[in-house]
Structures are given as C-alpha cells and as structure tokens.
Specification:
Blueprint: H1 5-22, H2 30-36, H3 50-58, E1 62-64, E2 78-81, E3 87-95, E4 99-100, E5 103-107, E6 113-118, E7 127-136, E8 143-149, E9 185-189, E10 199-202, E11 214-216, E12 222-225, E13 233-242, E14 245-255, E15 261-268, E16 274-278, E17 291-293, E18 298-309, E19 320-331, E20 337-342, E21 361-362, E22 367-372, E23 377-382, E24 387-392, E25 398-403, E26 410-411, E27 421-426, E28 430-435, E29 447-454, E30 459-466, E31 480-485, E32 488-492, E33 498-502, E34 508-514, E35 524-526, E36 537-542, E37 548-553, E38 562-568, E39 575-581, E40 586-591, E41 597-603, E42 609-612, E43 616-617
Parallel strand pairs: 19-21, 26-30
Antiparallel strand pairs: 1-2, 2-6, 3-4, 3-7, 5-6, 7-8, 9-34, 10-11, 10-35, 11-12, 13-14, 14-15, 15-16, 17-18, 18-19, 19-20, 22-23, 23-24, 24-25, 27-28, 28-29, 29-30, 31-32, 32-33, 33-34, 36-37, 37-40, 38-39, 38-41, 41-42, 41-43
Length: 620
C-alpha cells in the first residue's frame, strides 16, 4: 500500500502523540508498537522489534521478562531458565528511576535455573536493565541480559457477574449431606454402545445450585462434590498427574465482570485431601482459563492485568484500561516464576475483533488456553483475535498464526473459527479446538474442530468437525473438545452448559446438560476410583412405633457396594439390623423397633467394612 507524503506526516505525528501519552519509558517499546501502530521490522512474523527478538535469541538461556516487555509487573522477579544444572551469579538489576536493586536468588526445584527476587518493587513507567552470568549447566560462562519497562497498572474492579436465578428444581438435595447442593446433571442421550468409560468432571457455577468441583457418573448420579464459599467459583476441574500420582486439580476464585478470574489453582489427592496451592507470580492473581500440570512438576497458568493506555487514536478513551493476557510457567514446589510472556508487544491491538469500547476496559486479546508442544514451543488460543499462536519458548516470538487477521496459513474449507476456546496439540501434529462461533454469532452452532496444519505448504485443512445433529447448540462463551479414547471426543459447550460425546463418525454416544442458567467452563471425562478419608454421613428419622429410617452417603466414595445398618437403644448397644445394596449417591434403609441410635458401615464388594459413620440419635 502506497502512503502519500502528507499521510505519512500525519501518521508520524499521530504515533508521536500516542507514544508521548504512554510516557518516555515506553517509546520504542513493544507496548508502543501495540498501542500506537508502529510498523514491525521487515520480515519479522510478529510485532516484536528486531532488536528485542535478537536480544532474546542471543541469550544462551531464557530470561524473562523478555527483552522489550513493556508492561512487566512492579513486583516482577527475574527468571533465568535453562537446561539441567543451570545456575547464575553476578546479577545486576537497575531501574531507571528506582536505581540498583539488591535481592536474592532462589533455585527451581527442577534444577533448571533460578529466579532473582528483588528486595523492593520497581517504579511504574521505568526501564529496567538486567545482566547476569551463567555459572552452571551447558551455558556456563555465558552472559545474559534483558531490558524491559514497568506497567502503569490500572485499578481492577472486583464486581462480579450478577448471579443468575436458575431453577430450584435443578438443584440436588441430600438429607444425609445437607451441605451438598450442586446443580443437577440431566442425561438426554444415555451412553450408547461404543461410548468411552469414565466419569464426568464438571465445575458448575451460576444458576441456583452451589458452585464447586463435581464428579458424576454417566447416568448423572453424583459421586463427589466440593462446595465453595459464596461468591467463589471453580473451573478446569479434572484429574492430572503430579509427583507421579493421580491428583484432582481446579482453579478457584472470583469471576469478574471484566471478563477474567482472580484466584488460585488447587491440587488435591485422590482421597480429596489438599496437596498444594499454585499461585500466579509477580504480583498477579491466577486467571480461570488454564491450569496445566507438567511431568516436570511445573504448571502453566494464565493471568490478566489491566494496564493504562491511550486509545483515543483508535476511537477509545484517552485514559483506557486494556487487559494484557499473561502466560506463566510456575514451579509448583517453590512457587517461583520460571517463564513469563505478555500478549502486549506480541499481538497488536489492531488484530482484535472485539470492538474498542467507550468505557475504560478493553479485553482485546483474551488468551484462554495454553498447551506446550514437543519442540520448545507453546500453543496459545486468543478468543479476541480468532487466532491460534505458536510461541517460541526461547525468545517469546510468535512463529506462526492460524486464523485471524494475520494468519500464516491459508485456511481450507470449514477451517475458519470465531471466538474459539481450548486449542490443544493432538498426535500427528493435529490441533483440536472448540469453535464457539458466537458472541456475537458468526455461525449457527458451535463446532468441535480437528485441524491439520502443514508447515511446508502453509495450509490448514479440516480433518473433522463435530456438531450436534439434533440440537443446534451455540455457546456464547467457554467450552472444550477433548479425546476420550476409542477415537471418541467429548465436547463441553461451556456457557450453555451441555456436553456431548461423539464417535469418530460424529454420532452422538452420550449427551447431557446441567441446570437452567448454569455454566461450566470445561467438561472432562476419565475413569475414577476413590476412598475418602472422611467418615460416611447419615441422617435418621424415628417413628412412634420405634422403627427408624436412615439415609446414608459417603461423598466421593466409589467402592461402596452395600450399607450395613446398626441400631440400638444406646450408643453402646448397637446391633446389625440389615444390609442394603448401595443406590447412587444416597441410600435409604429402615428397620423396625430398633432405634433410636443408629450407625452405618460402608461395605466393599467382598463384604468388607470400608468405613463407619458416627453414631447419631434418630430424630422424631
């Protein structure tokens, strides 16, 4: 495109005004490029200036914040990540306003590097220069460096989305466990031949029921529920592997009206005991969109940070708040930040499909999934730009894009997606993604896509598209697509919130939904077996004729085959009065003229006692 001389002059003046509004420290920075439209150097696939990309590539190990980061946290640590045995020394950290920073080095539990923790915070808008010497590992003897700027952070409103009223009939109630009131799980299409085995891992919020992580079987019966305090929600509830053992993981916190979450990530044992809490580093709060545990004992998480920006030139406010999406790799055992990446400076504001608002907050990019690849790269999904990004872990640069305004690939028929979620690597270099197609609607129904990118021809072909053949389900937000074995795929529709299992031909093998107004960010399925460390619960009612009726449950237990009821005239004189086959979550038993004191024993498949409840007095 040719630009006339007068247009060039106006463009230069506009950019100068924009950069001036950002402050001197931001001039030439990645944030100025994102906000002010500075052109990237020729040949670069991203908006990262050539000097910054070259500086990152020159480092023998990865140093973050990356060179050119323009909105690092005032409380950021400096991360030095390399191979096995990496250590550093002679760390020099100097802020252009705050001066020289002392601090301490702390090693990662993985043995692959260290973080320098400054003794005091940096000043907003200043430039920070860092240098260090690598003293251990394959890069020993090398000097590494980075230069970055500190963000003008914006205040964060803690206002949450209003609670949707839901339907009282969509809530589960149990006399034996009155504190458990999750949303109901309705199965529309029962599991068909060929359906994958496993239980459903859900995290309902909104609606009438209590929010919290929930496990249900494929008939909709409750297995386990963990109720959360009022105003808190959970997302991303699923089994993962940590320290060589199966664990339960989820995000927990507040879902803000700004479009992101503020909370922390939980790790529980298979007996539902807390093992670890993973928090975002560098002064951020963990967002709800991703919590992925690696075999190395690290976790990939995301965070949102609104920063102040002048958007007047593009139709926004002169003092606007723009959400930066931040990706971190956290060492679970130490809590240290091993790697950090910012969307600002890598993804231009102009790439967003979200309209520039006339209010003071713009969620322009909205990273909503993270998946590390096998070649030192990271697959990211950005809802706001309709794009999947492949990010180089060493330099932070974007290697290629699928979709959006600057796609590196030609998209084949049926490939284009809108407002998507949950992009994941699949075997053979394929990528799965949940195509919302909505908010505002761009399609008539949401789809699960399996894509095949060809790096040689720069084309992407559609391998498979999954849509519900009987119900047009269009999810305005959230959702996921995961393989569940046997060539089958489970698709969660997020904000609807429905879930459907498809076989490879697209036939429906299982279909269900939660209650009215309920949301469930992602739906997972996996085999599950557990014996809790808690006691079984019971409630008892005594009739005038001396008979008793007892309800028994054991939240989270999967191995209970039957219940034995014990009753008597005092807590010390209890006798067995019968055994009843276990029925779903709660089992009802009765005995004539046996109370009023009762106790239950949970029995395994061989009749062995798994656990006993406390003794209670049945109420009249």
């Amino acid at each position: 495109m040719l630009v006339r001389h007068s247009d060039q002059s106006r463009l230069r003046t506009s950019r100068w005004l924009c950069r001036t509004a950002l402050g001197a420290a931001a001039v030439g920075s990645a944030l100025a490029i994102a906000a002010c439209g500075d052109a990237p150097a020729a040949g670069l696939p991203t908006s990262v200036p050539a000097a910054n990309a070259a500086a990152a590539a020159a480092n023998a190990i990865t140093v973050s914040p990356f060179p050119g980061t323009s909105d690092a946290s005032p409380s950021t640590q400096i991360s030095f990540l390399g191979g096995a045995g990496t250590t550093v020394s002679d760390v020099t950290v100097t802020g252009s306003r705050s001066g020289r920073h002392g601090g301490r080095l702390e090693a990662y539990s993985t043995g692959t590097g260290e973080s320098f923790l400054p003794s005091h915070h940096f000043a907003a808008g200043e430039t920070v220069k860092v240098s260090a010497r690598v003293t251990g590992g394959s890069a020993s003897g090398q000097t590494v460096s980075t230069t970055f700027a500190i963000a003008y952070q914006a205040p964060i409103s803690q206002a949450q989305f209003p609670l949707k009223p839901g339907n009282p009939e969509d809530v589960q109630y149990y006399r034996s466990a009155p504190s458990l009131t999750p949303s109901i799980v309705r199965i529309r299409t029962p599991a068909q031949p060929g359906a994958s085995p496993g239980d459903l891992f859900l995290a309902p919020y909104q609606g009438r029921g209590t929010a919290g992580p929930m496990i249900a079987d494929q008939t909709g019966n409750l297995i386990w529920f963990h109720p959360l305090p009022a105003a808190e929600s959970a997302t991303n509830f699923r089994p993962q592997t940590y320290d060589g053992q199966t664990v339960l993981t989820w995000w927990q916190g507040r879902v803000l009206q700004l479009g992101f979450g503020q909370g922390e990530d939980e790790i529980y044992s298979t007996s539902y005991r807390p093992l670890a809490v993973v928090r975002a580093g560098n002064g951020y709060r963990a967002d709800l969109h991703e919590f992925l545990v690696t075999p190395q004992g690290t976790a990939w998480i995301d965070a949102f940070d609104p920063v102040r920006l002048n958007l007047k030139r593009i139709g926004g406010l002169a003092d606007a708040y723009v959400n930066d999406s931040i990706v971190e790799e956290i060492d679970i055992k130490t809590g240290l930040v091993m790697w950090e990446w910012h969307a600002f400076g890598h993804i231009p504001l102009a790439d967003s499909y979200s309209p520039v608002p006339h209010t003071n907050n713009w969620d322009y990019v909205h990273i909503n999934s993270i998946d590390p690849g096998s070649a030192d790269n990271l697959l990211l999904s950005s809802r706001g730009t309709w794009t999947l990004y492949d990010v180089d872990l060493q330099t932070g640069t974007i290697e290629w894009r699928i979709g959006g305004k600057q796609s590196s690939f030609t998209l084949g028929p049926g490939v284009k997606f809108f407002w998507q979620h949950d992009a994941m690597w699949e075997p053979g270099g394929l990528i799965s993604v949940f195509d919302n197609g909505s908010s505002p609607p761009e399609e008539t129904q949401s789809r699960g896509l399996l894509l095949s990118p060809d790096l040689a021809t720069h084309t992407v072909t559609l391998v498979k598209a999954f849509t519900n053949p009987t119900r047009r389900l269009l999810a305005s937000s959230q959702g996921d697509l995961i393989p569940v074995g046997n060539g089958n795929w489970l698709m969660g529709y997020g904000g609807l919130p429905d879930f459907t299992e498809y076989n490879s031909a697209g036939d429906v093998l299982l279909d269900g939904s939660l209650g009215l107004d309920v949301q469930d960010f992602r739906t997972y399925m996996a085999p599950w077996s557990s014996q809790p460390t808690t006691k079984p619960s019971l409630a008892g009612q005594a009739a005038r004729d001396g008979s008793v009726t007892v309800e028994a449950s054991w939240n989270g237990a999967t191995e209970v085959s039957a219940w034995r009821l014990l009753a008597g005239g005092s807590p010390q004189r209890l006798q067995s009065v019968g055994t009843t086959t276990a029925a779903s979550f709660q089992t009802t038993m009765s005995a004539a003229k046996s109370g009023p004191y009762v106790e239950v024993e949970a029995l395994g498949s061989s009749g062995q006692t798994l656990a006993s409840s406390r003794v209670i007095k049945a109420k009249r």
